[in-house]
Design goal:
heterotrimer; A alpha/beta (421); B mainly alpha (386); C mainly alpha (202); B: 386 residues; mainly alpha; C: 202 residues; 9 helices; globular
């Protein structure tokens, strides 16, 4: 997918894809018959559920499983609940999916909604706007956010969603930033933009952070280091350091929701097909990917892989029925022939990973501890915590070890270990 | 359909876990991946990979060894010609040399692969590409007069004890090729050191000669004149027209390989440069030491660099990433101490004329300790994550 | 001075008590699991060797050696057959004394060394060093240097072994060989690399 010359003369430079000067209009996918929504809460059959199979739902209705649940979904259509079921998330965490049968007649009646510029309102209602604004973190009283960074530059390869949304909705973006300021009372709001888009920057109230074109320049930790003069300490999240990252699309949908006094459901997605050509689409949240594929005439065969998120930081899904979610910027379809092989070759200590690691971790030594499940030693002595999960070590690994996967698993196991103590 | 692919698909069942040749499964896989890309997929991201995989990595090392190999073949023929008292043409030298060298390489690869396949079959791990390098490096460190059964014995020890009992390439602590050589060296010192061109294999016979490092000037004459009297002038040593082990004689060819490895970033430049620096500094120190006239202590850095197998060892053996340290400061120290120890052994140890092999092995033992110390230093400087 | 330096280097590298004479193997294999404990035991051995070697020298040359009791009127008496039992008793006594001193003045070090301190009393490297010292006719000063050098060589070997064992946790050893058998093979390979010094005379 990303080619490089035969001779590995120097370390690879992976560059971000920049928005073409004359971007395509997004293709709108019609609202499908069935909508799938995800809830990050597991089903507990002992408790009385607020929603059940067969219930009618309105467009914009907030769906909550139990009386005291904090997790919620917002139905993008009117219709009836067809199924509520469990599915297993990353590392086996149990979550819930809700399938809604769409009723086109009732959907057309738009339901208006009272908007309020208040952080608890935003956290309680606006989390599921396209772009997934992190209002839950902003509303958390234990977290003191001093800077908000809008990501106008995409954080993964091959995708241009953020850049497109930023340049094509400048007015909305500026308006959204104002509302965001009102809601959160954070005075410093910045936006990251690739150099080439600088002319289109919304300069009025936003400080522009010009990002480089080489991966991983636009990852949160790198932005903090290069532009905010804050080095992210090992094991900390940007939010703990007072910096909150929010997608440009989230800010745009915020402005549009306030302007329309109604919920917004259309998500922009960059879809990269097997020939590596890009499609820009606009689909209602909850639309299964299979609908999009059939709409665009993309054949997905048995062994092909669907990657949600980008090629470096995304995750693969097992099914074409995976729906569009509020935080899905990119879908990559990878042909089975170019999927890299899995390997059980041990590390040969070649050191490519150390050369390329932006966090300066001794990955070659670290992986020996991760492969033998010694997570505590890996953290104490080999900087497991400092990893920013860019995936470059895995990209260059000579033995083709799934380093990124080991690191993520290591961090996950360690969190579990610490939670137990 | 591709006919080769068809054959593989027909055979696939027999070699699977349920089939009758289940034990030979890894051999089947290795042969199949030689023709086609393997089919299993990785499930978790990143979903793209660089083109440099282990197979290509190892083939780069093989490429870097080609100049040394071809020159070694030529020089073997040339030297055996000289030993018989005739000066051979280029092609004649090359062919008669190849006639001696090829059996050694074939035995090394053949016996080595036998052990590789045996272990791979019993222990169910894939056959590693790492052996392609080991199997070629080992013969290049041997004198061409070595009996073939010693080659077989040495490579067996190197592969089994040096690597396979650790679980294969990537898990061993010592360089397998050097382990093999050290085993042969200590077990059969007569065929390995000192007089390398004694009567042995058919094509290589003639007079007895010594390698450059065994030369010591007698009676107050300078070492340099004694050396050039015996045909070891600096230019001969640099280009490699001297007797010695197959691969080690030509400093020039070793340097070509070293530069290739450094440019392609297969070999770590820190080890190579650190080693050369260690050798030069130590050689200069000994040069200024009084009372050493006529011995190798008096030789100075250039002779130390070009004579013997130092450049071969530091370029191809010390840079073996598995047995070298994994941290950059560790690599500098590792290389430097190899250079240092090499000169120390050449000067101080009358038992072995050449010390680079043992110096590298010795530092292999200390590589994990160097890594540990470097990491401890790094952590002491790290901001605490509280 | 130069002689003492070469004696020190000789006993650290060339005649490494562990990898050239294979003395002290039991604790070398048992205590090399982590680098920290290996270093602790290494320092303890260096200290005990540096003390016991000269003390044993004094006892041997003052009491046991042939003719040593001439000052007491027994010039023909040869008590050197008692040297094994005397040396062992001296070593045990000194280890006990060292243990008590460390316990009194540095409880922290005592706690970290813990069980390894008494173990030193039965470490054959200690007795071996004293016997070598007698056999090689070292002078008093030489016996101090020889003891310190042997201890340093032993420590070097056990610390590097501990580092290697940390590295080979990643290894995939055949089931029958796992454990001490594998460590013995590593020790053998280490001894092979230490053979590079054999033949050097200082």
């Amino acid at each position: 997918m990303i080619k490089r010359s035969f001779f590995a003369l120097s370390r690879p430079r992976l560059t971000y894809d920049l928005l073409e000067p004359d971007p395509l209009e997004p293709q709108t996918i019609p609202v499908p018959d069935l909508i799938t929504l995800f809830l990050t809460e597991s089903i507990d059959s002992k408790r009385p559920a607020l929603i059940k199979k067969g219930d009618p739902v309105e467009k914009g209705q907030k769906l909550v499983l139990y009386e005291d649940s904090t997790a919620y979904a917002v139905s993008p259509v009117a219709g009836t609940i067809k199924m509520i079921d469990s599915y297993s998330d990353d590392f086996g965490a149990i979550a819930t999916c809700i399938i809604i049968a769409h009723d086109p007649v009732r959907t057309s009646q738009a339901q208006s909604m009272e908007m309020s510029e208040d952080i608890s309102f935003a956290a309680a209602h606006l989390l599921k706007l396209p772009g997934a604004p992190p209002f839950d973190i902003l509303a958390d009283e234990n977290v003191n956010i001093t800077t908000i960074v809008i990501t106008g530059a995409d954080t993964d390869l091959l995708t241009t969603t953020s850049q497109y949304v930023t340049t094509s909705h400048i007015r909305d973006l500026e308006q959204g930033a104002k509302i965001l300021k009102q809601i959160t009372n954070v005075s410093r709001i910045c936006i990251t933009l690739p150099e080439s888009l600088n002319g289109n920057a919304p300069t009025a109230s936003l400080q522009v952070l010009q990002t480089g074109t080489v991966y991983p320049d636009t990852l949160p930790a790198m932005i903090m280091k290069d532009h905010l003069d804050q080095i992210l300490p090992a094991g900390k999240t940007p939010e703990e350091m007072g910096v909150c990252f929010i997608r440009a699309e989230a800010v745009v949908s915020l402005a549009r929701a306030f302007a329309a006094k109604a919920y917004i459901f259309e998500k922009h997605v960059t879809l990269v097909d097997k020939n590596a050509s890009r499609h820009r689409i606009k689909a209602v949240i909850g639309t299964p990917l299979s609908n999009i594929f059939s709409q665009l005439d993309i054949q997905v065969n048995d062994q092909d892989r669907i990657i949600i998120g980008g090629p470096m930081r995304g995750y693969a899904t097992f099914t074409v029925h995976h729906p569009v979610t509020p935080d899905m910027d990119t879908v990559v379809v990878q042909d089975q022939r170019i999927i890299p092989k899995i390997s059980d070759t041990p590390c040969v200590n070649c050191g490519k990973c150390v050369q390329i690691c932006p966090a300066d971790i001794q990955v070659n030594l670290l992986v020996r501890f991760l492969e033998t499940n010694q997570y505590e030693e890996a953290t104490d002595k080999y900087d497991l915590d400092a990893c920013i999960e860019c995936g470059l070590c895995t990209y260059v690994c000579t033995s083709q070890i799934a380093l990124g996967q080991y690191i993520r698993l290591g961090k996950h196991e360690l969190r579990k270990l610490r939670a137990d103590v | 359909m591709n006919p080769i692919k068809k054959i593989f698909e027909l055979l696939e069942y027999d070699f699977s876990d349920a089939g009758k040749f289940a034990k030979l499964g890894p051999l089947f896989d290795a042969t199949k991946t030689f023709f086609f890309l393997p089919s299993p997929k990785n499930k978790m991201g990143p979903f793209i990979r660089d083109h440099l995989d282990l197979k290509r990595y190892m083939s780069f090392v093989i490429i870097s060894l080609l100049p040394v190999l071809f020159f070694g073949m030529y020089n073997t023929g040339y030297q055996s010609g000289l030993a018989r008292g005739e000066t051979l043409e280029f092609w004649a030298s090359f062919l008669s040399g190849a006639w001696v060298v090829m059996p050694i390489i074939i035995v090394s690869y053949g016996v080595g692969f036998f052990w590789e396949i045996l272990f791979a079959a019993i222990r169910r791990h894939p056959i590693s590409e790492g052996f392609l390098v080991t199997g070629l490096l080992f013969p290049l460190t041997l004198p061409p007069t070595i009996p073939l059964w010693q080659v077989a014995l040495g490579i067996s020890f190197g592969v089994v004890i040096g690597k396979e009992i650790f679980g294969g390439t990537g898990r061993n602590i010592l360089n397998p090729a050097l382990t093999a050589r050290a085993f042969v060296f200590f077990s059969y010192p007569v065929t390995m050191s000192g007089n390398v061109w004694v009567a042995g294999a058919d094509a290589v016979d003639g007079i007895t000669g010594a390698t450059a490092l065994a030369v010591n000037a007698e009676g107050g004459t300078s070492l340099f004149s004694t050396l050039s009297d015996q045909g070891f002038s600096l230019s001969n040593l640099f280009f490699g027209f001297v007797p010695g082990s197959i691969g080690e004689t030509s400093a020039l060819c070793c340097l070509i390989g070293a530069v290739f490895l450094m440019v392609t970033r297969i070999g770590n430049y820190r080890i190579i440069l650190g080693g050369i620096a260690g050798l030069i500094i130590t050689a200069i120190l000994f040069y200024f030491l009084p009372g050493t006239k006529g011995t190798w202590a008096d030789a100075g850095p250039l002779y130390h660099l070009c004579a013997g197998g130092f450049l071969f060892g530091i370029s191809f053996m010390a840079t073996d990433p598995v047995s070298a340290p994994g941290t950059n400061p560790g690599r500098w120290i590792f290389g430097f101490l190899i250079g240092f120890l090499t000169v120390i052994l050449r000067v101080a140890n009358p038992a072995f004329a050449e010390g680079v092999m043992l110096a590298i092995l010795f530092m292999n033992v200390f590589a994990p300790l160097l890594d540990h110390l470097v990491m401890k230093h790094r952590i002491s400087k790290r901001i605490p994550n509280v | 001075m130069g002689d003492l330096l070469s004696l020190f280097i000789n006993s650290v590298f060339i005649g490494n008590i562990l990898l050239a004479y294979f003395l002290g193997i039991c604790s070398f294999i048992a205590v090399s699991k982590t680098i920290e404990t290996a270093t602790g035991l290494g320092f303890a051995v260096v200290f005990v060797l540096t003390v016991t070697s000269p003390v044993n020298w004094l006892i041997y040359h003052g009491l046991l050696a042939p003719g040593a009791l001439a000052w007491a009127g027994y010039p023909g008496l040869d008590l050197s057959f008692l040297k094994f039992i005397t040396f062992i008793a001296v070593i045990a006594a000194i280890v006990q004394a060292v243990e008590m001193v460390i316990d009194r003045y540095s409880p922290l070090l005592y706690a970290s060394l813990g069980v390894f301190l008494p173990l030193i009393a039965v470490n054959c490297a200690i007795l071996g060093t004293s016997l070598f010292m007698v056999e090689r006719n070292h002078t008093f000063i030489e016996s101090v240097v020889f003891g310190a050098g042997s201890g340093t060589g032993w420590m070097l070997a056990i610390v590097s072994m501990a580092a290697i064992r940390k590295k080979v946790r990643y290894a995939d050893v055949p089931a029958g060989l796992d454990g001490f058998g594998f460590v013995m093979i590593i020790a053998g390979l280490m001894a092979m690399t230490f053979m590079m010094f054999s033949g050097i005379t200082l």
